Amino acid sequence: IACIGSFFLLVYLIMAIIGSPLSVAKCVFVCFQSCHATKPDMLNVHLVPHTHDDVGWLKTVDQYYYGDRNNIQHAGVQYILDSVVDQLLKNPDRRFIYVETAFFYRWWKQQSSSMQQTVKQLVDEGRLEFVNGGWCMSDEATTHYSAVIDQMTLGLRFLNETFGVCGRPRVAWHIDPFGHAREHASMFAQMGFDGFFFGRVDYQDRARRMKDKEQELLWRASSSLTPPMADLFTGILPNGYNPPDGFCWDQLCDDAPIRDDPDLEDYNVDDVVTRFLKAANTQALAYKTNHIIMTMGSDFQYENANLWYKNLDKLILYVNANQSSGSKVNLLYSTPSCYLQELHRANLTWPLKEDDFFPYADAAHDFWTGYFTSRPALKRYERISNSNLQTCNQLEVLGGPASRKGPFGAGDSQTLSKAMAVAQHHDAVSGTEKQHVANDYAKRLAEGWQHCQVLVSNSLASLRGSSAEIIYCDNLNISVCPLTEASKKFSVGVYNPLAHPVTWPVRLPVNGTAYGVTDATGKPVFPVSRSTQDVRRNRGFARNELVFQVQAPPLGFSTYFTFFFLHCDKFSSKNKTISLLQYLQVTFDPDTGLLSGLSNLETKQTIKLTQNFYWYNSSRGNNAESKQPSGAYIFRPNSSTPLVVSKTAKSSVVQEVRQRFSPWVSQVVRLYADSKALELEWTVGPVPINDWQGKEVITRLDTSIKTSQLFYTDSNGREVLQRRKDFRPTWELKQTEPIAGNYYPINSRAFLKDDEDQLTVVTDRSQGGSSLQNGSLEIMLHRRLLFDDYRGVDEALNEASEIFPDGLVVRGRLFLTLDHPASAADTHRPLAQQVVLQPLLTFTDGDLSPETQLEFSGLQAALPSAVHLLTLSQWDKDSVLLRLEHQFQSDESQVNSRPVTVNLQKLFSTLDVLGVSELNLSANQWKDEMKRFEWSPQKGTVHT
Ligand SMILES: *[C@@H]1O[C@H](CO)[C@@H](O)[C@H](O)[C@H]1NC(C)=O
Ligand SMILES: *[C@@H]1O[C@H](CO)[C@@H](O)[C@H](O)[C@H]1NC(C)=O
Ligand SMILES: *[C@@H]1O[C@H](CO)[C@@H](O)[C@H](O)[C@H]1NC(C)=O
Ligand SMILES: *[C@@H]1O[C@H](CO)[C@@H](O)[C@H](O)[C@H]1NC(C)=O
Ligand SMILES: *[C@@H]1O[C@H](CO)[C@@H](O)[C@H](O)[C@H]1NC(C)=O
Ligand SMILES: [Zn+2]
């Protein structure tokens, strides 16, 4: 079976491995004929009862579910669902939408089968409608597309399997995320959504759109996919996601109820009707059609749904009653899909948007650009957990049933899959939750990984034909691994989750000074650096690091044996240039010790490149322009000039260059043979605050590249968007924060380029960054702040822990490549995938039995370089879910941007493909059944 991907086409398949090909279900959409009738000659007001239930924020996801710790915030999702179902049954006109499947799933499991039947009927009749339907409402600035697709798949699959076609959301709903990524819109389009609604948009952008009636638009979310594949109708909601002022009837609100008994005190029906008509008519001025939407609900509302519904019933009754006295306003219970259907019927043309909605500001000095970097350790942990989950999913398929139940017990991938899905929430990986909630997210990921470790061990045992104990070392980044420190002979298994072969540097903590490694090149031993000793504190005592390059086949493993030698062989050099390698050369300034230049020896390109570390002093909120402090969400430096940590770095050279800038900032500069990237391993913290100054630490690369205010950042790790300082493509920006107002999310890469040179920086987690001077690129690495920023979290972002009571130390890596712009993507695309899906190292003490299989590849051959294997996971007993992705944009590579053919029949080495069925991106709909609304762009807004 040949599958041809056009530019950037994703192909999603369920492959039936055993048994007959899957049959295609044919369904009729009875459920969507349940929208209430509207009146063509009136202003129709769609009242959408809803609740916004954060999958963790001030409380953990489980505390929110149960309504525990109500002293922190009164919120209990189980009661919300109980109460709403009860109220829906009382009046068939009523509607409700539900969004977060993480909560709905918890509730559903606890219901009796008769209650489940009742709820199914409500769903079939369109009275309870699922919107968005992912496990959570993901953050858009700090998530990676791979994890977003997984979390959407998890939620949507549950809805499809539980409710069938009527449970399939047709509308994406991101009412709270703090800025909107173009890649999210592209993914939603490919998941089959007909439209997308959100609540937060920059205040200047909103003002302009309200004036021009452009709050509803067509988002062209990919520069590579042929329209309308990634076109998504997008609506900006009128009041964020709240009801209009004065019409909040939840128990959490204080607005007056509708007092409609004329015999009692304070009869207010006329007042309510008058105020409502005014609100509706005002709102209608900013939208194009004779339909408007009102979100009747907010955070954790409807716990006592009677309050809302009783008043909404009356509101509809009394406002519509005035139609007989000539009022032209018609109220109805509605849902986002019913509203969208009316907009579609209006058959208008819509303004086209091709950029994204970052950064988001809700006032002149309130840029929500701090969370791009907030909680950098959690952001890295989330990213590495994604890598571990993909490995776990793949090995569950490759190892067969023995992976779930084998010599090491019962393992599963579901625990990590759910923990990862929860971590995508817009107050999780975003870093905008309370500290105890951040700890809960990390704990869930750790527990998930433990379940996966059992699965991975079982699978490897089965594939290797050996049940020797497999040991994991999760702290290699700080040179801690009890096995390698103590053992005189051990083997290293390298599992590569990519569909291409990989070469990877391995660094292991050891106590000896000389080691032999079979089949690996370069095996020097370096003393453990001072910064590593500092950061590991008392968690391990290894004196040295053993470094060697390993190779692993696509979707498979290799094995290396390591022996301890007694004699000593010292590596040290005074050499100020490191260039043992064919690709790159890096130079340092002899006076300052700073990086000063980068050359690509292959292409003979050289740029000036000075790198240093700086910090912005965070605003305390006490200055003349605004009281806004810097906090978990908001970035607000007190001055536009960052302070330098140190003008010089003390460096020592042990094949790698170790730079020390201050007691709390250090860096190791590394070049590896066969690697086209320069590695900068930074270690920042504990950030001192004894001067009572919050600090936002950046590294800045100042280069000779002539960028004329332009720079480039990726969107959720996928397509790349052009950015320009002090500029927004769709409105005349009045810049009010020269630093924070120019920050953008960097999920996996950013670059600078001119006609000759492109410097690309690949990151190991999501971070914020900007280019504020020509040729300069800065990336924010860590933040330690002393004030809350008044967005609800009510804590200063001042991370500490048991091991780091003096403040968290964070370590990470940046990878730099220098290429010609025309071929840069050929290097940075595969490099970024290697950083996202990095090899998993496993260890076995002593010898392996001679019959152990030392090498394995799940593929017959590596995939073409343009194709990325995004997902391979067990779907059900007989089928697996496979996602293949064309990973190049249409214009970025002469060789790799072309269409590619993959022969699925010859893909796997151990699986026979018996049949293939193509699905949408989220795997909840057969591709041939995916029919989306078509929308027309307004003339004059289509750019070429
Ligand atoms: C609505 O109609 C009632 C009677 O039909 C009238 O008394 C009232 O003033 C009207 N209110 C508004 C706001 O039009
Ligand atoms: C929609 O508008 C177009 C152009 O204005 C028109 O040709 C078409 O017939 C309309 N479609 C419907 C269903 O009204
Ligand atoms: C490694 O060496 C250090 C320093 O000599 C020692 O304290 C430690 O116990 C050794 N670790 C092991 C596992 O042998
Ligand atoms: C510096 O490195 C180069 C390349 O590896 C080597 O040829 C040279 O001998 C080194 N010089 C010193 C002083 O170590
Ligand atoms: C959706 O769920 C139904 C069962 O409710 C199942 O028959 C169908 O195959 C599922 N669709 C997809 C695309 O998985
Ligand atoms: Zn929220």
From TrEMBL:
Matches recorded under Pfam families: Alpha-mann_mid (PF09261), Glyco_hydro38C2 (PF17677), Glyco_hydro_38C (PF07748), Glyco_hydro_38N (PF01074), Laman-like_dom (PF21260)
Example of a GO cellular component annotation carried by this entry: lysosome
EC number assigned by the record: 3.2.1.-
Organism field: Nothobranchius furzeri
Source taxon at top rank: Eukaryota
Cofactor info, note text: Binds 1 zinc ion per subunit.
Family statement drawn from the similarity comment of this UniProt entry: Belongs to the glycosyl hydrolase 38 family.
Signal peptide (from-to): 1-25
UniProt keyword annotations, A-Z: Disulfide bond, Glycoprotein, Glycosidase, Hydrolase, Metal-binding, Signal, Zinc
This protein's name: Alpha-mannosidase
SMART domains xrefs: Alpha-mann_mid
The Glycoside hydrolase family 38 central domain, residue ranges: 366-445
Gene Ontology MF: a single term: metal ion binding
GO biological process, one term: mannose metabolic process
UniProt KW Zinc keyword: yes
Cofactor: Zn(2+)
Catalytic reactions of this protein: Hydrolysis of terminal, non-reducing alpha-D-mannose residues in alpha-D-mannosides
Top-rank EC class of the record's enzyme: hydrolase
